[in-house]
Amino acid sequence: MNLILATTTPGQAEIFASIQGEGASIGRPSLFVRLSRCNLACQWCDTAYTWRFDGDNRPHRDNLAFARTSNQIALDVSEVAARIAAHGVPRVVITGGEPLLQAPALARMITALSTMAPFHIEIETNGTVAPPAALDAMIDQYNVSPKLAHSGNPAALALIPERLREWAVNPRAWFKFVIATPADLTEVSDLALTYAIAPDRLFVMPEGTDSTILRDRSRWLAEAAMQRGWRFTDRLHIHLYGDTRGT
Question: Distance from first CA to last CA of the chain, Å, rounded?
Fold first, then answer.
């Protein structure tokens, strides 16, 4: 069985060691595995090469389309597991795209990986897809990032009540909301109240792909988080490496 991964360059799977730049695990050395394909289309998405392929006209601020053949690669799950293990980094972050779209292959890959060494497994998800039981049993942490109205996704697709209720009661799930303007905070407050999201598991993060924008937004966003009892997260990898693949 294959996993469909994103690429750093044509033919080179995006599997890389770096510092986790966001959320509950910020600052931790991690091994990232970026999968391809997504069921949503955020207009500010900084990994549009995982889903906005030639012929996809869903709105995106850069209005770029990517060749599928040079931005995707299919690898057998055993090959992916071997590449992960070769890095020797015990914390693995599976990101995308939307990783849970490939749940059966992911479960097989993690099963293979578990025979090689112990790993802490995180999945970064938009929160719209439920993990099947076989996969869920192997996941240590979910980094759930529901998409607000400014993402451009219809709420019916991006904010599914049943899914949000399930994540809110899952002690392994940490919420991360991308914030562009102060108006977005009202939407987060409403979601936190509706689904009883614990403040200690709710992060707000500035939207942006360069340090200047992130710092400007962080000034007022950090204060807003303190006032509401939420947690603030920066985008550390952008400050360290810029908006580049494989970092």
Answer: 27
